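Re-run requested by the PI after the first attempt was lost when the workstation crashed. Everything re-entered from the original request form. Ligand of interest: nickel (II) ion.
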Amino acid sequence: MRVTVHRKAHFNAAHRLYRKDWSFEKNHEIFGKCNNPNYHGHNYELIVSVTGEIDKETGYVIDMKVLKDIIKSEVEDAFDHKNLSVEVSEFENLNPTAENIAVVIYDKIKPKLNKNFDLEITLYETPRNFVTYSGE
Ligand code: NI
């Protein structure tokens, strides 16, 4: 039996969406308010979903304490109260859109998990806008 367990987490972070190789006008047209040169913040809500077999001994797919600690070290400690555009190396040359942040989170967490697990990242940038990524 393969079961999916989900762990929620949260971080606040600032960003600016723009491309250095585009004019201000083009950046404004594509990214709108998210191109604000003075940055702006979001309250990101994260759901980390791990799918795997139930361990016969423990009855768990994964110990939630283990998953919680991975999320803390890889995401919360790395992103919370940071300016993603300025302070987080993964976004030095990558626009910190919700899409790209989800892929970066996936790539950080996946190597920390048992290879038999499937991982899906759900990232809410606003209560109404969210993305999912599962390594496809
Ligand atoms: Ni934004």
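Saved to the shared folder this time. The first strand starts at residue 2 and ends at 15.
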